[in-house]
């Protein structure tokens, strides 16, 4: 477990350092995720050794957002001052984006599968 | 040994990290149990319930957020390693990624643009001012990137942080229900939609559905953050065209 955690934290540290050094527009941990993914592709044997710890961390992923979520209370007045515009944007904007993303992916998947099937037949 | 009056005990405990850390865990476990009792009712989302309960407790006890965060930061810290750990479920899907590459790319571009345009458009129509619009624009992106974007654009980063959380909660609360109603069943599609529109909190929701959904959401969250950061510097020009 400590071995796995060390590997995960090392990837995060590398990710955070690279992001800071080059000023890239992505969070360090996200780059860390891509680095770990590439490492696993190169050395597949590592996956089994990290899996248990990784799954453990991910089992309660929603819990990890609670401390930041409680922080909404600090900005309550600012949110309340614009509640109509923000409420509409949050509720409808988010659901519109969600549906648009899903439909775009569903549509492209359909095309890709048809093209593949046609190629397989010919 | 002298007895400690209850009030003194409270003053002592409320100032310790242990108290708020433990309370956060207890509230979370309680919220999950409550949802399970009610047959997994989606509207009793345990994250929403926990956040609301904890805010209520902090307001009632007149405890500042900073004091709460002293304890809760130990949970908050795990967000970083958990994000890195998303590489594992993604690795398990590696064989499918080449089929999904083009659909994911199209979905990300559409999702990132629609997320900004729909939010800014609705808020502008309802009379929000420029600073609020610029704070709102990156709301579907994971917090650190969203705050950076808001700052560069001239928004209010603190407001953005709160809007990002609320966006995630909207996605987690209603997202799966809306997608199901539209007949969308493909786990990869559900995952990518949740990760693109509702970042990490959407990813956490996706994980409750399954590892495939979670892995796709994690990937989409990361890539859409990059894409939005690259696209959003164009927004002030767009607003200028509209005379704002």
From TrEMBL, chain A:
Keywords: Cell membrane, Membrane, Transmembrane, Transmembrane helix
Predominant location category: membrane
Residue ranges of the TM segments: 31-50, 57-76, 88-112
Localization per record: Cell membrane
Bilayer topology term: Multi-pass membrane protein
UniProt superkingdom: Bacteria
Record's GO cellular component terms: plasma membrane
PANTHER family tied to this protein: HOLIN-LIKE PROTEIN CIDA (PTHR33931:SF2), HOLIN-LIKE PROTEIN CIDA-RELATED (PTHR33931)
Protein known as: Holin-like protein
Species the sequence originates in: Marichromatium gracile
From TrEMBL, chain B:
Protein keywords: Hydrolase, Membrane, Transmembrane, Transmembrane helix
TM ranges: 12-31, 43-61, 73-93, 100-126, 156-176, 188-208, 214-235
Topology versus the membrane: Multi-pass membrane protein
Signal peptide: none
Subcellular location: Membrane
GO cellular component: membrane
InterPro entries: CidB/LrgB
Molecular function, one GO term: hydrolase activity
Protein name as annotated: Putative murein hydrolase (TIGR00659 family)
Organism placement in taxonomy: Bacteria, Pseudomonadati, Pseudomonadota, Gammaproteobacteria, Chromatiales
